[in-house]
Design a protein that fits this description.
Blueprint (H helix, E strand, L loop, with lengths): L2 H4 L1 E8 L2 E8 L4 H8 L18 E4 L2 E4 L13 E2 L12 H8 L9 H14 L5 H8 L9 H18 L4
Antiparallel strand pairs: 1-2, 3-4, 3-5
């Protein structure tokens, strides 16, 4: 048995409502497992240092940088990626708002912003601009679409309130 094989642990990850049982090497990050093992490529590898936010996902109820979390650290907490936002009924209001207000620009950072915004709206459906800015502060947009992104989050929150939607 090699050293790598000896570090494999059988885990169950619950991602976007589905359970995935798999052996995971102890050193693999959540981002690596999502992208390489589960083929969920929405979370992007932008910096691999927790500085850009492109890999943001929700673990439990908290937005986290998937590049900074070992897959084994997730435990039994559910993981939601950008692929889990849309339902059979259509896009999440955040996705609709980003599309309508051009909050995506080139699109590379958009999944991270969407997930950070979702974590905010899951706990506060009436954020003001400052709250939106604080919630998204760990995400970088190289296209400088911050104004459109902020407008998109506030518009999505209003749409969700109008629909009586809680998440």
């Amino acid at each position: 048995m090699t050293n790598l094989e000896s570090t494999l642990r059988e885990i169950e990850l619950r991602v976007n409502g589905r359970a995935h049982n798999m052996p995971i090497a102890a050193h693999r990050t959540l981002l690596e497992v999502l992208r390489d093992s589960l083929d969920l490529t929405g979370a992007k590898s932008g910096c691999d240092r927790g500085e850009c936010g492109a890999c943001t996902v929700i673990v439990g109820s908290q937005a986290v940088y998937a590049c900074q979390v070992l897959a084994l650290q997730v435990g039994n907490r559910p993981v939601v990626t950008v692929e889990g936002l849309a339902t059979s009924d259509g896009y999440h209001p955040l996705q609709d708002a980003f599309l309508a207000r051009d909050g995506g620009q080139c699109g590379f950072c958009t999944p991270g912003f969407l997930m950070a915004a979702k974590a905010l709206l899951d706990r506060n459906l009436e954020p003001d601009r400052d709250e939106v800015h604080r919630a998204l502060a760990g995400n970088i947009c190289r296209c400088n679409a911050y104004g459109a992104i902020t407008q998109s989050v506030i518009a999505a929150a209003r749409a969700m309130v109008a629909r009586g939607q809680t998440q």
